[in-house]
Amino acid sequence: MTKTITLYSAQSLAVSDRLRREGEIYSKERFVKAKYQESAIIFQTVYGWFVRQLPRYVKKPASAEYPYWGFVDRYSVEAGGDSSLLILEVPLEEVVLFDLYDWVKLMRLEYLGETEAEEIRFRQKIKDYGIRHSSDIMTGSFYPDLKREIEDSWQRLFRHNDALKAGDHSGVRGIQAGLWRLKKDWL
């Protein structure tokens, strides 16, 4: 029997309707760009990195471009007026799990340390260079070595995946999932 995980995911009514109609749907890059317009550079940087990493953990279907997000806890989901809350029962092999607070650091284009002390040391290091915030490194063309160091640190996003899939939630404050597709069978 396939092991599954219950996830909550807020999707627009259009996406929810399409899922019920088509049975299986994939997120496209153009939808993300259109949704986040003025913040697109940040989303493209982080989502682009995530899209390159996700196939290491979850097999990528041919039609997939960008991920969908799910959460283990309902309270972690932000559902607006034009959205519906989907409750999904997803096979574990279809998801990668991570600490949602680590994801927030990536979305801020920050260094993801093994410890808080390591993150503080990195912030001091870039301050010594005269750099205000790591986002200045990630969105600019200067400091390629620091940029690489930040991107390399993002691999830690997946450090809890195996333990979370095994049911060990220690050291994680909230669980987020990335998945390539949504399936009507999972509703």
Task: Give a verbal description of the structure.
The chain has helices at residues 13-22, 29-36, 40-53, 100-107, 116-128, 134-138, 144-153, 161-165; strands spanning 4-12, 24-26, 68-71, 83-91, 96-99, 175-179, 181-183. It is α+β, with helices and mostly antiparallel strands and 187 residues long. It has one domain (4-186). A three-stranded antiparallel sheet has the order 3-6-5. The chain starts with a strand and ends with a strand.
Provide key terms for this protein.
single chain; 187 residues; alpha+beta; three-stranded antiparallel β-sheet; two-stranded antiparallel ribbon; 8 helices; 39% helix; globular
Quote the beta fraction: 15-25%
H/I helix tally: 8
> Which spans of ≥5 residues are poorly predicted at pLDDT below 50?
none
Shape: globular
Binned, the helix content reads: 25-40%
Count up the domains: 1
Oligomeric organization of the protein chains:
single chain
Largest sheet: 3 strands, antiparallel
